[in-house]
Structures are given as C-alpha cells and as structure tokens.
Amino acid sequence: MFKKIKRMLILLLVILAEAGPTAACSSSCPSSCDCNNIGLFSVPQDLPKTITNLNLRDNLIATLSQSDFFRYSSLTSLYLSNNVISVINSGTFNLETLTHLKIDSNELTSVRSDMFVGLVNLQYIDLGKNLIASLPANSFVGLKKLLYLGLDHNDIHSIEPGTFSATPQLRTLNLQSNRISAVPADVFVNMTELQNLYNNSTRSFLCSKHKPENFHINDTNNSPDNSPDNSPDN
After folding, report:
1. CA distances (Å), origin 233, targets 34, 57, 68, 128, 229
2. Which helix or strand (DSSP H or E) is residue 12 part of?
3. Shortest CA distance to 153 belongs to which of 168, 133, 181?
4. Contact, 119 vs 139, CB < 8 A?
5. What are phi and psi of 33, to 5 degrees?
6. Which pLDDT tens digit goes with each residue over 71-81?
7. Lowest mean pLDDT among 20-24, 50-54, 99-103
8. Are 93 and 70 in contact (CB under 8 A)?
9. Measured on CA atoms in the order 163, 159, 174, 119, is the torsion positive or negative?
10. Which residues does residue 34 pair with via DSSP β-bridges, in sequence order?
11. Distance separating alpha carbons of residues 132 and 83, to the nearest angstrom
C-alpha cells in the first residue's frame, strides 16, 4: 500500500512540474495572460482561446512556428521580449487582430518577406536589440497599417530599395545604433506619412530623394518618447 501511494505521489510531482509554468500564468487569464519569466521553452498551448493580451517576456523560447499562436486568434498585443528567438517560421503570425508586437532583445539575424504575413492590422512592432544585419526589399510586406517600426540597436549596415514600400502609414522609424553608412535614393518612396526618423548617422539620409513633407531626422541617442509601447508592467 505504501509503495503504491509513493508511486502516485511521484507521478503527481512529475505532472505538477510539467504543468507548473503554464499553470502559473493561467491564473492571470482569461483576457490577459502574464507568462513572464517562468522558464518557458515554447509557447503554451493550454491558455484560454479568447485571450487578447499575452506576455511571454524573459523566457527561453528560441523558435516560433505556425502552430504556436493558431488557437489565440483574438490576440491584440503580444510581447516576446528577452527570449532567445532566432527563427520565425512562415505563417507564425496569422493574427488579424494583433496591433502590438514586441520581439526586441532576441537573436534574430534577418527579416524575411514572409515573416509577418497575416498581421494586417499591426500598428506597432519592436525588433530592436537583435542581430539583424540587413533589410532586404519587401521586408515588411502586408503591414499597411504600421505606424511605428523599431529596429534600433541591431547590426544593420544596408537597406535595399523597396524595404519600406509596403508601410505607407509609417510615422516613426527608429534606426538608432546601427552601422548604416548609405541608403538608396528612393528609400522613402510611398512613405508620405513618415514624420520621425531616429538614427545616429544623419548624413546618410540627408541625400535621399523623396523625403516626405514635415519629415524630421533625430540624430540623438534618445529613444522616441511617444512610442506606442503599451507594454504590460513587469
């Protein structure tokens, strides 16, 4: 009898250990789930389907796949800062309601044209503090409603023509602390709403043609004060 009880207790401990991380963040649901800093290696799949805000900051997630957010189709805000994300597979963000996305402080080395497909209502994205080296054409295809794009503190040294052509509503572009020495002459084509550019190498942008009306270049080290962060409290 004692051995049977002991086996049951061990089994229960194993189950609790496996369910612990998601059980801890499930307590903050159903509309907003705070799964911050609980040692997750992947996106939990046992949270309420109706959640609108999901905080996955400060975990150990390395790869994002198509099935990760499939069940959370009502998300409006998603926070993935301070993980170790190096791979975002095509179709990961098929989230039509999402407006805010933070993937800063990760290990992304590139931006692909299929990386953000499905984010038709996204207004804010932060990709700062990654390892991105270049921005190819059509990097942000489909993000027609994007207002803020953060690419600061990367290793960007080149921007190809057409990089921002799919973001006509963009108002603020943060490129601080990169290695940009020159930009294509037509880099600002179709960016009629752009008002603020944060960049340490002002000279590389002054020669660009098609600069939008009321365009302002800020070459200080200060981050934008009016960034629509809306991040959850830590």
Report:
1. 10, 11, 24, 19, 11
2. helix 2-26
3. 133
4. no
5. -115, 120
6. 999 999 999 99
7. 20-24
8. no
9. positive
10. 55
11. 15
User: How would DSSP label each residue in 19-63?
Assistant: HHHHHHHHTTTTTEEE-TTS--SS--S-S-TT-SEEE--SS---E
Q: Which whole number is the average pLDDT over 143-168?
A: 94
At 113, list the tokens: 């044209």
Predicted local distance difference test score (pLDDT) of residue 199 = 84
Query: How far is residue 80's CA from residue 126's CA, in Å, rounded to a whole number?
Result: 10
User: Which residues, 6+ apart, have CB-to-CB distance to 36 below 8 Å?
Assistant: 25, 55, 56, 57, 58, 59, 232, 234
Computed on alpha carbons and rounded to an integer, the radius of gyration of the chain in Å comes to 20
Those residues with Cβ within 8 angstroms of residue 30's Cβ, 6 or more apart along the chain or in another chain: 48, 50, 51
Collapsing DSSP to helix, strand or coil, 221 comes out as: coil
CA atoms within 13 A on the CB side of 52: 4
DSSP code of 121?
T
Nearest to 151 by CA among 169, 120, 178: 178
